[in-house]
Design brief:
It is built from eleven helices and eight strands. With about 350 residues, the protein is mainly α. The protein has a two-stranded antiparallel sheet with strand order 1-2. Strands 3-4 form a two-stranded antiparallel ribbon. Strands 5-6 form a two-stranded antiparallel sheet. α2 runs antiparallel to α3, α5 runs antiparallel to α6 and α6 runs parallel beside α8. The longest helix has about 35 residues.
Amino acid sequence: MTALKDMPISFPGLFGDWEFNPDPIAIHIGHGIYWYGIILAVAMLAGLLLCMKQAKRYGLTEDNVLDMVLWAVPSCIIGARLYYVVFYLDLYRNSDGSFNWKEMIAVWDGGLAIYGAVIAGFLVAFFYTRHKKIKLGAMTDLCVMGLLLGQCIGRWANFINREAFGAVTDLPWRMRLWVSSYQSIEVHPTFFYESMWNLIGLLLILFVVAKGRRFDGENTWFYFLWYGLGRAWIEGLRTDSLYLFDWTIFGEPIRVSQALSMVMVLVSAVMLFYNIRIKHHNREELLVNQVAARAAAAAEAEVLPESAAADAVRTEETAGENIPQEPQQEEKKEAETEKEEQTHGDTH
């Protein structure tokens, strides 16, 4: 079911007859500058700033973050769009069965799948960290925080586009949308559910998980566990799910995101259990602690040569005090002594 993008949005159970009718196009220039793109850009910028601020706590630098973002942002957009198009391929065919390539790249009309972005981002992080000889777990631990913040903000782009909503409900916070000029529906605001779920997950990582982090990758596995649980629940409420081709289970079509979320939850739970209860990591293994140890060793190595040089100077000065006088100086002293004796004799 698709809602009209030029009809008002309201929350009758909360605000009565008050309506909000945002234009999906923020600036009408050329093909238009869409709120969808603006909100996603703000989401990416906010995630980037958070990662840059937190970088030192993971043994990384702002340059590491910026370098990776240059590759990650375009890759994630391509990955998110490709993931969506693959599972909605029939929407991008012409009447003769050929592909409508123009529609496939029209990201401004919506149609980005977050799992496609996550997969692309992980691949970029994998190759970047191998090239820079950085721990992958440390980089992904940092990046998932920016990702959660970006997802939290980015879901509001779905709100402006009247998409990613849930099934019909009579809950007090239901959202009213219009599917025609005379027919409305009242549905779960699932975009809001996911936005709030991501915000809670981000706060948990910042103030709980990260403070007691035992190994590089702990934030990452917690993200997959937390996001997977929320997405599996929220996806079951949505009416616009991507389906795994025409496959079914127990007679029901398989929702791609729901199936992937459950797999992700299971894998994450196993990895967290293994790394916390079985492997028992030493906190010295964390990249941030290794970087700190190397910095301390380098500082000590710089201090030692300076101390040795100072000792050498002091030794030379001390030795100089005991050096015999030059022969010329001794001759000059003897001549002065003889002159004084002659002067003394003449006086007598």
